[in-house]
Amino acid sequence: MALSLPDPHAAARGFALTETQLKTYLARIGVDGPVTIDREGLTRLHRAHLLTVTWEAIDCFMGWPVSLDPAAAHAKIVHGGRGGWCFEMNGLFGAALQALGFQVMRLAGCVDLPKLGSAAIGNHLTLRVDLERPYLAEVGVADALIDPVPMALGEIEQRGFAFRIDLAEAGWLRLHNHEQGIAGTIDLKPDYCDEAALQRSMEWLVHDVGSPFRNALAVFRHVEDGYFALQNDVLRRVTPGGAEKTVVSDADHLAELFDTVFALNVPQVPQIWDKVVDARQRSVA
């Protein structure tokens, strides 16, 4: 008698977008026509999402409500003109992939596990997509991959940035970000899906005074040859050759950057600026 094994994709199917949500999501990222369920189709969607939707953790910085539910991310990103952080970006992307017919697993990953230890487990939502082989689909790291990659050890080069996947302790795979990246490493296990760990970690990041996202404004946007990175009052334009820095002068300047560089419809910019000034003063005190 054959054993009935658990379906590794079953949990993610519960997060799939509805037909209407999928249609509006694809319109938001500028994808028209049919999407092939293969590496080319996955890459097309992955790049379209990252070149259209800004990574941002403004809600966490400001103490505004945050959810792990992809439906909430859809409302915020598609209808609200906002972006999101890993729980929202990868959550929405994975839900769209599921609705299209891709085989997806939501993985409880870790950012900077070597620095933070086991407390980091679940502080990052990432995605495994099974095609002819497993792929890492990662639209939730602000300054890393722009295209999906096989879940395999080795060197990776994208847009002139160098990455590497190697084997870490206890069967974890470790993605090393490029040398200018803010997140140094992203760890994952190809079969480790733990929604409770993701929820616990998100709650800590949102509510704990030690959370890095509560203490600094972070907004990132990919472009064809690199990305823009806003951290508190410093804007960097990063390419493989280096970075150019601009200091944000005031609330009006911040509002202009949200609109023109990051394509964000952000409320209460003066209040955000006041908190940026406070964070800057505390960092130099």
Descriptive overview:
The structure is a single chain. It is built from 11 helices and 13 strands. The protein is of the alpha+beta class. Strands 5-4-3-2-9-8-7-6 form an 8-stranded antiparallel β-sheet. The protein has a 5-stranded antiparallel β-sheet with strand order 1-10-11-12-13. A hairpin with a 2-residue loop joins strand 12 and strand 13. Helix 2 (19-28) packs across helix 5 (70-79), helix 5 packs across helix 6 (86-100) and helix 10 packs across helix 11 (269-284).
List the helices and strands and how they pair.
Blueprint: H1 10-13, H2 19-28, H3 39-52, E1 55-56, H4 58-62, H5 70-79, H6 86-100, E2 103-111, H7 113-116, E3 124-130, E4 134-137, E5 149-150, E6 154-158, E7 161-167, E8 173-176, E9 185-188, H8 195-207, H9 212-215, E10 218-223, E11 226-231, E12 234-239, E13 242-247, H10 251-260, H11 269-284
Briefly, what is this?
The protein is an alpha+beta fold and 285 residues long.
**Share of helical residues:** 25-40%
- Please, what is the average pLDDT? 93
Q: Which class best fits the helix and strand makeup?
A: alpha+beta
Form type: globular
* Main beta sheet: 8 strands, antiparallel
Strand order of the largest sheet: 5-4-3-2-9-8-7-6
Total beta strands? 13
Low-confidence stretches: 1-6
Give the helices and strands as they follow along the chain.
HHHEHHHEHEEEEEEEHHEEEEHH
Beta fraction of the residues?
15-25%
Distance from N terminus to C terminus (CA atoms, Å) equals 69 Å
The number of helical segments is 11
Oligomer: single chain
Rg of Cα set: 18 Å
